[in-house]
Design goal:
The protein is of the alpha/beta class. The chain is 35% helix and 25% strand. It is built from 13 helices and 19 strands. The structure holds zinc ion. Residues 276, 278, 280, 282, 336, 338, 340 line the site of zinc ion.
Length: 449
Amino acid sequence: MSLYTGLVSSVLFPLHEKLKKHDTLAIRKSLEQSQWLSADQLHDLQAKRLSAFVENIYRHVPYYRQVMEERQLTPADIQNAGDLRKLPFLSKNLIREHFEALKSDIAGPLNRFNTGGSSGQPLIFLLGNERVSHDVAEKWRATRWWGVDIGDREIVAWGSPIELGAQDKIRLARDKLFRSELIPAFDMTREKLLGFIERIRQVKPAMLFGYPSVFDLLAKTAEQNDIRMDNLGIRVAFVTSERLYPYQRENISRVFGCPVANGYGGRDAGFIAHECPQGGMHLSFEDIVVEIVDPQGTPLPPGQSGEIVVTHLGTSEFPFVRYRTGDIAALSDKACGCGRGLPMLESIEGRSTDFVVAADGTMMHGLALIYILRDMEGVDAFKITQESLQHTHVDLVVKTGLTDKMTQRVQDGFKARLGQGVDISVCEVSEIPAEKSGKYRYVVSKVAS
Ligand SMILES: [Zn+2]
């Protein structure tokens, strides 16, 4: 028996078998073993799971049966992540169009889930138990990297009224697993913010979980009111769902006295990547195949930014295969200092709509504009809307009233980035409303999207 076969039979096969169990605890234990495998071993394990997954959906999911027959493919043609490009991308529109045909004929109970999405139409899809157990186990593994375990108290700040209304299984499973309390963080008035701060002080959670914008706002409010939050024993703030800006990380960390751990994922795409204490953005590699593709759909090598496309191997009951997330990132080919073999994302640059385009066509991250406003005295909140290449609009919430001098500074700073001929309008507003989804977007470009 070769060394490789020995490895497959002694390590990878048992791990694969354990990962097939739909029991969150067993999956979490198995993930905690596999995270220490080498990157090569993890690729083998992932390939093994991928090929079993493809076999399963070929047999039982009418849509994929048809897609593969049309392309004259059999499961044997898809043996590893590289072979996935033989299959088409899955978009929100295709899910809507083929909803019934995407259900496995051997699916167990499925729960309907509805995500608002940060833009566009809501997506309705189905979640099976297998997928829920894997998503919960992946999150559980990541919280344990930060010393937070099942049973530790957690405060969840969720901004979306849509998601709060949903009777979704992930939430129920999570609430059972974690002693979790929810802060409905939308339409936040000053009184509500102070109420949440008080609640966090009473609960003394081990972990905060939710939108970075919400915890940043809570941190700012606590600081303005001289309320200490760094003596509650909070071990980590897990942030997700929005881009985490460096200034938010710094504020949250300083005020709550804990590190900030960035996560990337969505209800639709799954728990895709999470930061370890050494700063590596590790993929949930055993469960999710990540491809980075250019605008033509061609997979890109590590180091090059493109759209994140995911194949979730726990979704055989309602498959997500090459699902386009609309988010931008690059894969890393580096190893992490923590010693885990789990491959990493190099950077997550946010949604394509977080970018703005200068008059000369240069794409730049909205952060370039955000920093101009962050540095200005008296600016409490803002929203930047790039209406066209020639016109960008800025809404500002200003503590002491907008002065001509401030307007001039915004216009000078923005023109320096976007082009001298660009018209910059500045308007004072009393508040910046959240998007319909409940998320805050600080930069909206009608040009870049
Ligand atoms: Zn690491």
